From TrEMBL:
Gene3D superfamilies to which the protein is assigned, alphabetical: alpha/beta hydrolase
Stored SUPFAM superfamilies: alpha/beta-Hydrolases
Keyword hit for Ribosomal protein: no
Pfam families given in the database record: Esterase_PHB (PF10503)
Any one GO cellular component localisation term in the record: extracellular region
Name by which UniProt lists this protein: Polyhydroxybutyrate depolymerase
GO molecular function: hydrolase activity
Keywords: Hydrolase, Signal
Database matches in InterPro entries: AB_hydrolase_fold, Esterase_phb, Plant_Biomass_Hydrol_Est
Species in which this protein is naturally found: Mycobacterium asiaticum
Length: 313
């Protein structure tokens, strides 16, 4: 779990104004009311000083937001960034409908330290858990956020990072990894609602586990993680859930388990879908990495928000 001392003294920049953030933090959340100008409507870009480097993130605030607001942290995949995630997965449109904030952090070297993956952040053991906790705290210092409705989702390496966040922090009411697997120790996780979405034909993060196909010929990391059903089984154990029930509609199979205190652990499998965010836009990164066209059998973003909206911490 990210330490209290590691989160103190965050310096962040809102637009062109440099602001020093003080005060106390508990469980990754800033204490007290916001003490800086509110986040503007629409998209804004921010920076915080973290671990000796400037780290950046975007925030989207929809019109007509009611305080205190839910917050979704959207983590891009490997080779992506916050701008790419904002363009590809239509979370801004979903936020307009659902009235919540969205944060799009940028990984160092276009990757996240999710454990044994990926890239430079993993190789240097970068404290990305602490960085994302600091992003949440920085947003809370500017606008009222409902601490019971903070969520994390991500694609691929970002999905793995969302799983690590749930394993090591108590910030998030629910997470929703897409096309990812567990590549870190999760033995001390607290109960958390989890929705996992995965294509059964994913060659990069295989549904049945084991080494995946490298995304690039120049030595990009090959993910070697748990089978996807084993990840949700792990979370059913953590959450002390009952046995799952399964339903199938066309290409989409949902395996859902109810758990104490209203939590849920769910796996949605999309038949014959590859390494993708179902319902997303095929952008330059997918084309460059020669990844398949996203499935239209499921709108992952809308499905995830419907799941999040049912869960509170």
């Amino acid at each position: 779990m990210a330490s209290r001392s590691a989160r103190a003294g965050i310096v962040f920049v809102v637009s062109v104004v440099a602001l020093l953030v003080g005060g106390c933090f508990a469980g990754g959340h800033a204490a007290g009311a916001p003490d800086h100008p509110t986040i503007p409507v629409g998209k804004s870009s921010q920076s915080i000083k973290w671990d000796g480097a400037d780290r950046t993130f975007n925030v989207y605030r929809p019109p007509g937001l009611t305080d205190p607001a839910p917050l979704v942290v959207m983590l891009h995949g490997g080779y992506g960034d916050g701008d790419q995630a904002e363009r590809s997965y239509h979370w801004d449109t979903e936020a307009d409908k659902g009235h919540f904030l969205v944060a799009y952090p940028d990984g160092r070297g276009r990757a996240w330290n999710a454990g044994s993956c990926c890239g430079m952040p993993s190789q240097t053991n970068l404290d990305d858990v602490g960085f994302i906790a600091a992003v949440v705290s920085a947003i809370e210092r500017q606008i009222p956020v409902d601490p019971a409705r903070v969520y994390a989702t991500g694609m691929s390496n970002g999905a793995m990072m969302s799983l690590r966040l749930a394993c090591e922090t108590d910030i998030f009411a629910a997470i929703a990894p897409v096309a990812g697997t567990l590549v870190t120790d999760c033995s001390r996780a607290r109960p958390t609602s989890v929705l996992q979405i995965h294509g059964t034909a994913d060659a990069s993060v295989p549904y049945n586990g084991g080494p995946g196909k490298a995304l690039k010929r120049n030595g990009s990391p090959r993910v070697d993680g748990l089978p996807v059903p084993s990840v949700t089984a792990t979370w059913r154990t953590i959450d002390n859930c009952g046995p799952p029930t399964s339903t199938t509609a066309g290409a989409v199979t949902a395996e859902t388990a109810g758990c104490p205190d209203g939590r849920t652990v769910e796996l949605i499998s999309v038949a014959d879908a590859g390494h993708q965010w179902p319902g997303s836009v095929r952008g330059p990164i997918l084309e460059r990495l020669r990844l398949p066209e996203p499935s239209t059998a499921l709108d992952a973003t809308d499905t995830i928000w419907q799941f999040f909206s049912q869960h509170r911490r």
